[in-house]
Amino acid sequence: MNEIIYLIIGASLISLVAYDLLFTTFSPRGAGIISGSVSTAIWRSMFWVSKWLKYKKLLNAAGIIIVMAILLTWVILLWAGNTLVFMSDASAVVNSNTNVPAGLSERIYYTGYILSTMGNGDFKGGSDVWRIYSAFISFSGLILITIGITYMVPVLQGVTSRRSLSIRISSIGNTSQDMLLNNWNGKDFKKLESHFDQLALSVAEQGQSHLAYPVLHFFHHTDRVAALLPSIAALDEAITLLLLFVSEERRPADEKLIPLRQALTTFLGSLTSLYLDPSDVLEPDLEIGKLEASGIPLEKPGMHEIEHLNKRRRILKAMLKYDGWEWHNVNDNILDTTMDLPEMY
Description:
Layout: H1 2-26, H2 33-53, H3 62-87, E1 93-95, H4 104-116, E2 123-125, H5 128-170, H6 176-181, H7 192-212, H8 228-245, H9 254-269, H10 289-294, H11 303-308, H12 310-322
Antiparallel strand pairs: 1-2
Helix pairs in contact: 1-3, 1-5, 2-3, 3-4, 3-5, 4-5, 5-7, 5-8, 7-9, 8-12
Keywords: Membrane, Transmembrane, Transmembrane helix
Protein name: Ion channel
Organism: Pontibacter rugosus
């Protein structure tokens, strides 16, 4: 009876790992049950430890730790599952010299060995069926390593793209209001059109990358200029200010503004993989003090317009909170002004 239980549990573990591995690495809407649970558990643990220690830089290591933990979890579960399958038959693994059935520790050793190689010959399958199965396990181990590398390469490329996009957004302005002030030509904000045109595709690509590889959300940067999520929030808030307080004739053309806004919406949609709950987050205050002081003509939006965008702004705030940032970081000065002439800032 125990042998049947071992076989059922072992086969179930192997099937679960195979599904999770294939879904996580090849599905366009990325994390499986195992990888998603591991990612969330490690992130939350590191988040609270960093908060307790008051050492935010700890989060910088979260991304790579999560990727390695996912790969290690797959290996351990595949190892355990195949060991249980070998436990389902007393003669499944035998000593190569004496043909004495292997014990539990020897079966664990044998399974681990053949997952990475064909073993060193001290143990073997007890019958032709088990020897064929051993060869199959060895082949599956090779596949696991290959898929693991395949998974890591686009993730690391995505991390680099995140930093590049954040720096590109930050170059428009330190804060949401600065993005507008830097592109006011005295009569309208048409200068923003060239920025929006270039950013729309990059933001859309990031949204799709985050859907395919949700682990990208856990690559944190304490350097504000390289941190994508605060930059995304600042850019989206700048567009919100345009829509609420600037007349249509003074805004960038719709064919430039709308694609970027929709790309940002897609990016925010990818955050559902993090189980964000904006319902318990209050929307941030709309800050327009700098714009008012500059003398730029502003309109007074209706309350229904502001309320219509409250959900979006709560999601932005929840996104920042989940990543270890606060809303005021959106309006932080992020560039080192000692590195260049004042007019460059």
